[in-house]
Amino acid sequence: MTTGIEKITFNGLPAVRITAPDGATATILNLGAHIVSWIPAGGDERLYLSDKSAFKVGEAVRGGVPVCFPQFGGRGNLPKHGFARLVEWTETESRVGKDFATATFTLTDDEASRKIWPHAFAVELTVLISGQRLDIELGVKNQGENALSFTGALHTYLRMREVEEVKIEGLHGLRYLDAPTGVEHDETGVDLTIEAETDRVYFDANRPVLVREPHRSLGIGKENFADVVVWNPWEKNSAAIADLPDNGFRYMLCVEAAAVNKPVELAPGAEWWGRQTIAAL
Question: Is pTM, for the whole model, over 0.70?
Fold first, then answer.
């Protein structure tokens, strides 16, 4: 077993693989600071990655953990989910400690970004693995002279053995937007099961979420992200997505920390951070 930091090529793209002393590993592309693999210590791969993904600068990778910034979905005039996932980030620090491994990537504004989003900014993504945990922290600083606002998410694709057997706990009583219909509802179910297309934004979701499968689970916690997004395209939409296998919906589920309903507002010089923690149980 290799412990440490490796500069590798992953499907033709530069990447960093970090391995903690306990054997936990994660692989992060320079493109988008995109996490494409997370294997807890002694465990199996827990992120879904489509084998039909395009691995090219300027194109989104389907699966893993795309960073949606500075726009979630189509809520604005930018490319869907913003531009951060489509461009190269810079690895600024990677290290291994007694019981963890971590890597940090940064992105700042440039001429191309200012043409479509006229703000000076610095974004930092830090990935830390230890044992059964994956911690992802996104930090944003307004480096300009004018206020800025953004929406975003850590758009996490979880690998499922069979999505129809999954139960999602921790959403009961929350208000949510059903994206396909544009209608808001209150979550009345104790558990959320995936039996059809599911595309929901749960507002002010301050409780941990448990994604339960037979014989294993994932606990998901967050800080400073107000919302939780749950998405599965189901059969018809999966077949229509070019970079997703027709049956891909069966083996993936997006449950992600997000800032969607209320944009984050940053005054000049102000900073914000949000964190998502996933624990294999």
Answer: yes
Q: How confident is the model at residue 2 (pLDDT cuts 50, 70, 90)?
A: low
* Catalytic status, residue 256: yes
* pLDDT tens digits along 235-275: 999 999 999 999 999 999 999 999 999 999 999 999 999 99
From the candidates 34, 81, 124, 256, give the one annotated as an active-site residue: 256
Catalytic entry in 119, 137, 155, 184 = 155
- DSSP-derived secondary structure for 169-236: ES-TT-EEEETTTTEEEE---SEE--SS-EEEEETT--S-EEEEETTEEEEEEEES--EEEEEE-HHH
Using CA atoms, how far apart are residues 70 and 49, in angstroms rounded to an integer?
Answer: 23
Helices (H), 73-191: 111-116
Pick the CATH number of 4-280 from 2.30.30.240, 2.70.98.10, 3.40.50.12780, 3.40.50.300: 2.70.98.10
119: annotated active-site residue: no
